[in-house]
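Hi team, as promised in this morning's meeting, here are the two structures we talked about. I've kept the exact order from the run log so nobody has to guess. The first one is mostly here for context; it's the second one we should focus on when we meet again. Sequence first, then the predicted structure tokens.
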Amino acid sequence: MIVIVEGTDLVGKSTLAERLSTDRGWPVVKLRWDLLGDPMVETTAMARATIALLQALRPDVIFDRSFLSWWAYGPVLGYDVAYMPGLAAGLARLPDLRVVLLTAAADELERRFNHQPDQWFGLEQIIAANERVPSIVDLLPETVARLTVDTTTSGPDDVFGQVVRFLHRDVLPSQPSDP
């Protein structure tokens, strides 16, 4: 099974990915690339290479973020992401894929940022990208199972429980999480 945990910084992706890794014994892959040139070229290359490797290897793995993050962050940073639906369509070739989208309310992101500032993005960028995260669902092929969890009031144990239940289902694509 391939699990992609998506969301902006400060929503709990790494906490969830590490906990799932401990529970499942699967590795966590944390892809972060520096945009050194054309973001469309780099994102396209990252997406195609990731999908091809996963399709060939069929590993049990947890991704702490993927190329899908660019859908949320690209426009916030001033870049066009109109090409992203075509890249996301390639995820249909991964039959054991599960996507978990994490979000949080703006005031909660601010609280978390004030407690521990993010090293990559400012608070305004994180909040703006967070507003776009739910629309990642619209990019995903219908065959990709997905779960959206708002971490504003859900603690790490609750989020983990929701995700474990989601992974254990005989999965067909689903929408927002159980309350």
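And here is the second protein, the one for discussion:
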Amino acid sequence: MWTIREATADDLPAIAKIEAQVYTVEGPWSLTDFQTDYALSDRYYLVAEDEGRIIGYAAAFAENDTVDLTMNTVLPEYRKQGIGTQFLIKRLEWAGNRKVVLQTRMDNTTVQQMYAKYGFKPTQVLEDFYPNAVAALEMVREHLTESLPE
């Protein structure tokens, strides 16, 4: 059974490997990219593990009173098991009462519905946000204090 924990610098090579496996066309981040980002202040990285093997990662960063959810990647064979939802919940707990912003692919309606369940509302379409001219939908969760859905 998989578990979620805060990532360490030692996890970055495995994170970069997953990035390269999943984002073959979209220009994956390199290990150096992850190391540089991880070293910045106000970063929050999580990993999902299954029997010691890292199977997914998520990240966020805080700037003033806003948290940006920047990454959420799970190996294909582990999808649809609730890992992405747990990544979201952990990052929302980390965000506390701050406004939370994220971007997701316009064609990923399944994940958009999940985000809506957690209080996110669409705010704008970002044309050419992802490689290959793929648009993103920006979604925002305003400062909220109510508990997260079950």
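Starting points for discussion:
The radius of gyration is 15 Å.
The chain has one domain: 2-141.
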